[in-house]
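Deviation from plan, reported transparently: 6-diazenyl-5-OXO-L-norleucine complex.
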Amino acid sequence: MHLDIPDIKQEVSTGSLPSRGRVDELVTAAYTRYRNHTAGAVADYIPALADADPNLFGVCVVESAGATHAVGDTDTLFSIQSISKAFVYALVCEAFGHEAVHKRVGVNNTGLPFNSVMAIELNHGHPMNPMVNAGALATTALTPGCTFDEKWEGIRATLSDFAGRELVVDDEVYRSESETNMRNKALARLLQSYGRIDIDPLGVVDIYTRQCSLLVTARDLAVMGATLADAGVNPLTGERVVSARVCRDTLAVLASTGMYEGSGDWLFEIGLPAKSGVSGGIVAVAPGKGAVATFSPPLDSAGNSERGQRVIARLSRALGLNLFASSVQVATR
Ligand code: DON
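Because the crystal trials were delayed, the predicted structure below was used instead.
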């Protein structure tokens, strides 16, 4: 990952965001700086994604207190893809608790690509990382419900609660991925062979594919992230979606695994839990403050949006979001 991070001052995490007007200015400046940036390639391994317009670009910040700052294509719909993994993970933690999910799925980065079979074999069948496909399939298998219809309805309803509006599936993306997802079917069968999935693996792949096909906007992603930043309460609807404990667990997992094999570099440069998806979305969460979401389809080789990473790197610095940044406090002795 080479972000070419601009030479701007690293503001210190203060516990609060700058004034609304200043956040507006900084979001607009970040958008403007990268509007004409062209690096990266649109994902084409799912045929329906290959037609995405590489010029689409939106940046949205939603504060935990609810204020929204949106510039560019923030109301364009796209399939949520891997970003769904973060919110289904929260759903399963809410239903079954920290220990059960930790034991079944794990919380560590495999350091291998998001669709790796080798990662399962190297870890004796343990999926390890809930934010890559194998761990996400094991997580989706755990969702509450006696039938796949019940499980699916729980996923759709919970992700809708995070977004604060009813989310629907993009049927074209769902069909296109269903026809080409042999690798995910193989991963699910392999997990079944290791006892990590104990229901019909192809049924699990089906609802996983539907969850990845849910349509969102950058604005939705920012609201979903801001709900994790706001201890589980959606800042727009005021509804509690998950507990504060679940937010903490989910954000810890995102910090170590959310940007695939680039997660260490990401934490080093940006200092925020985040999740990306192959359709070009990224959401980064600043606990207690809010979330930054971007949409720009061209990706780097790990599957992370090129422009999105740069914009969030800039905003993490300018808004003082990096969790690890501090300044000397004068002792009052
Ligand atoms: O399972 C897949 O391959 C896609 N539905 C999601 C992959 C994804 O978003 C990985 N992203 N960077």
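The two ends are 44 Å apart (CA to CA). We consider this an acceptable substitute for the interim report.
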